[in-house]
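Worked example 2:
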Amino acid sequence: MESQLNTEQRVQNRVTRSYLDVNTQLEHFAIISYKVPLHKIAHLIPKPFKLWTYTENGEEYALVSAVPFKDKDFSFYRISRFPKFKFFQTNFRTYIIDQRDNSHCAWFFATTLGSITSIIPEKVWKMPWKFATYTSSFKKKNDFYSEYKIDFKSKMGDGKIDIKSTGEEVKLLEGFKNMEEQIHILTHPVVGYYIISNKELGTYEIWHPRIDVKEGKATQLYFELFEQLGFLSKEEMNTPHSVLITPNIEFDILLPPRRVSNIDSDIFNI
């Protein structure tokens, strides 16, 4: 019940921050998740945060996700609805708890962006974003993808995504107590954090309605960043914890991001 109420509050709390706020429809939105043993990832998360984890067969795991999608009509709508930009994007994240208020958030390791505008978040706001070149192919009918293929190349690492819809509704996934907890943690983090330096983080917020995701299955997957970070081998990437897909979802991004100082951490800048 608590997770459901928290998600409903996030859906209802649609706010604005500045004239740089963005509104966009995201197409081909997927959440491809993997379980990672806690010892492989815990050292990357600074206080006051901790990883959301679960225990399976006596071992504690966190989840990491690659989240690919296409921004269909990205615009700074509070200034003007035009021009609108189209580009692919992939976020790499894990799921954390802010111990100051016990809220569930996302921690971003990196983002690849299929647009030269990636230089703005990278250089101006010190976000871990890199330009990438993308190729894609989709075949779908209604919400069912018979083909979903994305390949990208970037200095952050290359990636290959080949997934399909199963035609099934999403079930309760490993590690979650109930469906509302699963929705709240996995599909509805609205605050994200990322490393700027050893003593400074960045944070930004988003808004979106509840996401009507469907179950997917993997044909072939590879994310070089997850291999570089030591989370997963190439072989392990082909057996994800879960694949979730939705063809379209509206997003607001509240910009500019803010800086958070005095972080107690020796974390390096990825």
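The domain at 2-261 is CATH 2.40.400.10 (Acetoacetate decarboxylase-like). DSSP finds four helices and 13 strands in the chain.
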